[in-house]
Amino acid sequence: MKHEIDIRKDQNLDKYEIVVENFHKKFKDINIGPFSFKIEKGKVNAILGSSGSGKSVFINSLLGATLSYKGTIYINGKDRKKYNSIEINSKIGFYTQMDFSLYPISAYAFLTNICNVMGINANLANDRIEFWLKKFDLWTSKDKALKDFSWGMKNRMNLIICFIKEPQIMILDEPGSNLDSNWRSKTYDIMNEFNATTNCTIILVVHNINEVYDNIDNFIILEKGQLLFSGTKKELGLYKKIKVFFETNSDLDLVEKTLNEHDILTFEPNSTENSIIVGLKKNQSFDDLSILNSVNIKVKTVISQQINIDEIKKTLKDKERPHIPKYLPLSNLNVGANVKNNKAIKAANDDKYLSSQKETEMQHFEEIEYDKLLTQIFDEENDLETLIQLSNSLQNDDMDIEDMDIDTILLQQEEAKSIKKMKTKQKIKDIKEIKTKNKTESKAMNKKTTPKDNDVVEVAKKAKTSKTTDIQKTLTVPNIQQEQKDNKVAKINKIKTEQINNNDESQIIQNRIEEMKNRLNKTLPKSK
């Protein structure tokens, strides 16, 4: 007894119903533990984890079904291994799925026998049987044989067996299985009511976290036999999230500002979808989004985001970098002392919002101007000379062609518009190649500096900058232009030969080179 008192003092067991110290059970292929955690009295606790994480092993040990584990499990300050199982289990209610297929006994008679085994006196047993059969809507079937019950009715009978004991600790392992959505919801409502009236400590083992998320106070997360987390919902930092879609062209920054100021978290604004993800805290609901009406923003659709073990793992990884809302929440407006503080917060939020709006407008303007240049690049009527001029325009606007900074934008445009844009990289490569060759030739021609050479350079410049219609005009040049024509044709043939080795993506460029070759043949006069 002294040992029990010492443990109670050391572990503060007036607060905790169950204390687990260094629990460890070894199997051939896996180790469960060692881990330690505490379960608070009167709270709804969820034990979560993937299949094989160790949930069932721990529950069986907690119930005393197996005692071959290392470490200690204290239940109300008593060591599970050292105390009588009947004494400890008399305060525990456990939900299990009995089939009842071979039970010809009626529901009422069966529950009477169960109450007798549990040590509940006859008068109290009759009252409880009637109460719980009515609670689970089985009173009209009390004289029906259990073997004739449907799966849903059998499952409700299993729940009655757990509740009729009115235990101090209740363990529910997938209580919603074999129940339709209506009865799953009712079962959790009954559980909450029982918890509130009796201060019963409830341990839930579930896979569908969404259905019970609002009911859970504390989480115990197991994965591959190890304890990932044990603590409150607030400490976990997991929120019930909904994805909200708005009417066309809604100001998402204004949405964030309005919701954040009312202490509603926002994540991942998406201007393409015109949507945002909203994180709802325990006392918040979809109805709280009605505050958006004050800024004339209309909600179109709401989709609930699934809470699963993967989302919880992601939350645990993000705990080191907690989410910080874009705008500061306002204090309680009903408290006079906070009015001045709220004005300062409101002013700061307004400044931040205006700054964000200006930044968005500037970014939008730059995107429009840039898209115009990209649209011209994608124009099939462009010759290679025009493409060089357009690339120079991009460089003048600090768009670094050499480092291929526009690749991402081009590839995004290609997905939305046309497969032709897949050739953009090859175009830019050809542009750079021609620019490099033109520079080399220009240096070589400058060294010669003969009158005829200067004439040739001047004509070449005019041909390079003139439009397609101007190119078709007859130019008067010296006979030496035949040599220039041959050089240009040779350069184009060289480019064509190099591109033949490329894949099908270079086909458009090859066609363009042929077109340029034909234009040169038509434009430059033949020598006599």
Automatic annotation (TrEMBL):
PROSITE patterns xref list: ABC_TRANSPORTER_2 (PS50893)
InterPro entries associated with the record: AAA+_ATPase, ABC_transporter-like_ATP-bd, ABC_Transporter_VariousFunc, P-loop_NTPase
SMART domains reported for this sequence: AAA
Stretches assigned to the ABC transporter domain: 8-249
Protein name: ABC transporter ATP-binding protein
Keywords, alphabetical: ATP-binding, Nucleotide-binding, Transport
GO molecular function: ATP binding; ATP hydrolysis activity
Tree of life domain: Bacteria
The keyword Plastid appears for this protein: no
